[in-house]
């Protein structure tokens, strides 16, 4: 992403020449530089917030990409559900370790509480429909295998919601509610 500050700095330096550090505190050029700096900080904060929010979904898709079969063929529902259960149990060892390290009568650590909340939320999602790449379609498997790990290229993949009872519904990207 091109920085607005760099553009403004370049423009001001062309105008002022070598006297860049001799700007008056409240001059137009100094105000432009301050505004551009504040804008760049705001944009970086927004981008990092979005990346942090999307990281969970990227991890989920990369897990299913890593567990694709060697020969790309549509998976059976039992195998898909086994993969989902494997994904849901990924924090179980850490939670058990945190519980065993805690002295009796002491409250749970923040990390343990957060992990338990995440596990509970994912289990509830699995009951109503677990959002994941469509592993029952050969074209989707080929696209998932070629996926490079970036957020924007997820739009090319097909997604579905798999219920614990075995029901499958097509879904959309990005995941919203129970779509």
Automatic annotation (TrEMBL):
Region (Disordered): 1-37
Basic and acidic residues bias (residue ranges): 25-37
Compositional bias ranges of the Basic residues kind: 1-18
Stored InterPro entries: Tma16, Tma16_sf
Superkingdom assignment: Eukaryota
A UniProt-annotated Pfam family: Tma16
GO CC list: nucleus
Family recorded in the similarity comment: Belongs to the TMA16 family.
Name the UniProt record assigns to this protein: Translation machinery-associated protein 16
Species in which this protein is naturally found: Dissoconium aciculare CBS 342.82
């Amino acid at each position: 992403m091109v920085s607005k500050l760099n553009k403004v700095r370049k423009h001001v330096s062309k105008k002022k020449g070598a006297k860049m550090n001799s700007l008056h505190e409240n001059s137009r050029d100094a105000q432009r530089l301050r505004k551009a700096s504040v804008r760049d900080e705001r944009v970086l904060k927004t981008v990092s917030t979005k990346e942090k929010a999307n990281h969970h979904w990227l991890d989920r898709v990369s897990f299913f990409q890593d567990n694709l079969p060697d020969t790309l063929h549509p998976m059976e529902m039992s195998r898909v559900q086994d993969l989902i259960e494997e994904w849901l149990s990924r924090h179980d060892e850490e939670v058990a370790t945190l519980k065993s390290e805690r002295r009796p009568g002491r409250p749970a650590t923040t990390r343990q509480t957060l992990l338990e909340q995440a596990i509970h939320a994912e289990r509830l999602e699995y009951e109503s429909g677990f959002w994941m790449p469509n592993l029952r379609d050969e074209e989707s498997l080929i696209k998932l295998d070629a996926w490079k790990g970036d957020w924007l290229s997820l739009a090319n993949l097909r997604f579905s919601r798999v219920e614990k009872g075995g029901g499958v519904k097509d879904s959309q990207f990005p995941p919203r509610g129970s779509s």
